[in-house]
Design brief:
Strand content: 35-45%
Distance between the termini: 85 Å
Strand order of the largest sheet: 1-5-4-3-2-6-7-8-9-12-13
Helix content: 25-40%
Radius of gyration: 24 Å
Structural class: alpha+beta
Shape: globular
Number of strands: 13
Length: 238
């Protein structure tokens, strides 16, 4: 009986080593075939609110700097870290995609709206590459940086019973952008839009919006208003 137990232990030990070695080999091979550079994703700190733009994984595509496209990928965007997190089903791992290797990414949400994100260098406060969602693409682009930050809040207890005094809060930043003039921050309101034009243009712009029955009340109506104004050709002030 002792010999049988010893033999069984030896077999189990040998199998565990084989499985361990085997599981490590495909990781590199599959990683190479995916052509997606990055590193394992670390969990976000646990606070109230939500650090991701997407509540669930979405299916979309990413475009590399050389123009190559990988389609039908599972990913979601971390607004807190400004990172694209890709779920590799073959190795059951969440990978933070190397931002420098990407030109951008896109997906269609559950109600059929297309979202296009573009990596651009931002030369304002906290300089560096960012993912901007493109709300309007023309000679002058309307972009939004969908930032989530940790803000101080009234103390509360987490689900685990831990006392917290911070929470994830959205701080979206909207910009007009052109390669020649760079970025200018704009508030997504009527007064914010008008402030980007000289005084002689502001009254005609308000008249134009009234004529087209556009009342700015949210992001969608702001985008609609900008496209209407941009189409007419009013000169934006940077």
């Amino acid at each position: 009986m002792d010999r049988k137990i010893a033999l069984l232990i030896l077999v189990i030990f040998s199998l565990s080593i084989s499985v361990s070695v085997f599981s490590q080999i495909p990781l590199t091979k599959k990683w190479d075939t995916e052509k997606i550079r990055g590193e394992r994703n670390l969990p976000h700190p646990s606070f109230e609110g939500f650090p991701y733009l997407n509540r669930t994984w979405v299916i979309g595509k990413i475009e590399f700097n050389d123009g190559e496209v990988s389609d039908s990928l599972d990913f979601r965007y971390s607004s807190f870290k400004d990172e694209l997190v890709y779920f590799n089903r073959e190795i059951s791992a969440q990978i933070v995609v190397d931002k420098a290797s990407l030109k951008g990414f896109s997906y269609v949400d559950s109600i059929g709206i297309s979202h296009i994100f573009r990596r651009q260098y931002f030369d304002g406060f906290a300089k560096g590459n960012r993912y901007f969602e493109v709300l309007s693409d023309a000679d002058i682009d309307l972009l939004v940086y969908r930032k989530v930050k940790l803000s101080a809040v009234s103390p509360y207890k987490s689900v685990a019973g831990i006392l917290r005094d911070q929470a994830y809060t959205t701080e979206y930043q909207y910009y007009f952008y052109s390669p020649t003039n760079g970025y200018t921050l704009v508030r997504p309101t009527l007064s914010g839009l008008l402030s980007k034009f000289d005084h002689t243009s502001q009254r005609p712009i308000k008249k134009l919006l009234r004529k087209n029955r556009i009342r700015i009340s949210d992001e969608d109506s702001f985008v609609l208003a900008w496209k209407c104004v941009d189409k007419v050709g009013f000169q934006l002030i940077f």
